């Protein structure tokens, strides 16, 4: 009894230490701002999040109207977070950190429960908590979906371990429910049935190729799970079918939501040959960044080409490692499980099917997959040192050294998320031809009043990617505000050539035409903007102003009222409506 109590105290101490070091590594996020990479578009400027949790916003969260793929639970978490803490970026960052800590503790608890191995489980959890590759998932408020969905990933695994200990309908239902909630946070969880099959082999030993070692004993460092019942492989596969169906439904809902958005699947944005060549190379780069986390950035753009030798070499390396670990599957099963976890869970984000501005790879994509590599490393080190006389001392020194180094790296990496300026300056420094980073850095410079530098970065983005509409649009607006009509017209016209249905470009071009006195042409562009975005209050306001100038007071009033209906707090539209009423009354009195 006292032994069990001491072990429980030790596990609680490990959990407390993991939480404290994670907080220490990430605490500066409380002083970080939102960044100009979806945070403003999807969160800060999202009117539904401003309303908080209501029947209307819940319906919107579950609809296909949001500007991203279907993840209603993530939207609800943002609504609740903003409703409680307001639009304070520091608090929103800390919510992400809370989920990251919860994921770390759950990972430790699940691994310890499955394997009985305290040190290995704690080391994997420590690597997960402190590795700088995970900073993007924690520090980027918009990426709440990653840490939130992983929270349900861990709960799914925990529920599954309970189910395997004593199978029953209610326990299976808990697994099903946890997975369903996770998929509503992010469809990345579609690979969970595959991971559960891996865990069935090791460490749960519900399926065996032959008799092999089982769970690691914390006292001896050996495996012992010989009392577990071995199930037929076919039964274990059938057991996962409801979970596979759930994953298929999630994939269908995500595809359906994407089809209803402006960010349709970009089959031609990157040549298929380049995407295929990038797959093995990106796998190897993920491994490299896990082993030596340098040059981390918010976006890694596709290179113009991937040399054949790189693609073939990376493919042969991955195939060689796969063959090697599979040959050891009976003697050292953790190698195969860890490696296949990494390979399999990256498949949904490997880039063969792309949505929006898809990168060659992304740190956030590795949040769950690298757990497989951490498992491989932790149990591998333990295995190598199993016969050493001072094994525990060596493991303690190794753990302290590695985690301390990672903690420092994570602290330094988190600092780049302080502001958009810091984030994109860093991305430009450590990547080549990063058109998106140059554009976003231009916007950050513009917001700081550094106009010439902003123009330079926008032009650099266009020199890298001439068909990139956003810097054309940004330059058009910038020059329009400066009164440089000719330059503004060039860039806005280029933007409309690239994407004729771009509502904002039509709106800006309409404003340019107003400055030139071409009112009816301007009105046609405002109407086109409304056609593309029926909730575009600013476009309704501008048409109302034009109709007022044309003394079409009835039409002007109709458009201005519509603008106010869409945005009740739209001050300019209300002022224009008041001016319109005053002018129309004066004209009416003059006629009398």
Automatic annotation (TrEMBL):
What transmembrane ranges does the database entry give?
94-111, 117-135, 147-163, 169-202, 241-261, 308-326, 338-358, 364-381, 393-417
Spans of the TPR repeats are 435-468, 469-502, 503-536, 537-570
Region forming the signal peptide: 1-27
> Sorted alphabetically, which keywords does the UniProt record give?
Membrane, Repeat, Signal, TPR repeat, Transmembrane, Transmembrane helix
Against InterPro entries, the record matches this protein to:
O-mannosyl-transferase_TMTC, TPR-like_helical_dom_sf, TPR_rpt
Could you tell me which PANTHER family the record lists for this protein? PROTEIN O-MANNOSYL-TRANSFERASE TMTC4 (PTHR44227:SF3), PTHR44227
**What name does the UniProt record give this protein?**
Tetratricopeptide repeat protein
What species is given as this protein's source?
Answer: Candidatus Desulfatibia vada
